[in-house]
Amino acid sequence: MSDPVEFVTDHEPWNAVDGLEATCRAAIVKAIARMESVREGTAVILFTCDGTVRALNAQYRSKDRPTNVLAFPAPESEGYPGDIALAYETCLEEAEAAGIALLDRAAHLALHGFLHLNGYTHEDEDDAAAMEALETEALSEIGIADPYLSPVRE
């Protein structure tokens, strides 16, 4: 299998988060080992700012506000799973509110986005439970506490 993710950083504060790419990749690799199927190709994760995510959210979801993570599944014909964007300021606020490291929050959200690219949803209780269990197990394997025990919810 090729590298499941590629990282692009266009917002300088992300560069101060030690181990960001390695930790996000590790969480995703641990989840892949538990997944029944994974889309071929390399997903792209963009570490960006609230302004960029707000613009993407407005353009593609008609929601003129930033959010923590956006996932854009690519059509099967594109040959890669799709793109993910994480908003620095929102992720930092959520990490601080939950009393957790920004690294842990970012790893969770990168994994969350990757699962969306691979067809996982949280539209109903059963789907949400399956997605949360996969996230929790993968994160636990790399030493990150259950994100669903903190006060910050998706």
UniProtKB/TrEMBL annotation:
Molecular-function GO terms, alphabetical: metalloendopeptidase activity; RNA endonuclease activity; zinc ion binding
Keyword Cell division: no
A Pfam match: YbeY
Domain of life: Bacteria
UniProt-annotated binding residues for Zn(2+): H112, H116, H122
GO cellular component: cytoplasm
Location in or out of the cell: Cytoplasm
Requisite cofactors: Zn(2+)
Biological process annotations from GO: rRNA processing
Family matches, as PANTHER family: ENDORIBONUCLEASE YBEY, CHLOROPLASTIC (PTHR46986)
Function: Single strand-specific metallo-endoribonuclease involved in late-stage 70S ribosome quality control and in maturation of the 3' terminus of the 16S rRNA.
HAMAP family linked to this entry: Endoribonucl_YbeY
Similarity-based family: Belongs to the endoribonuclease YbeY family.
Name of the protein in question: Endoribonuclease YbeY
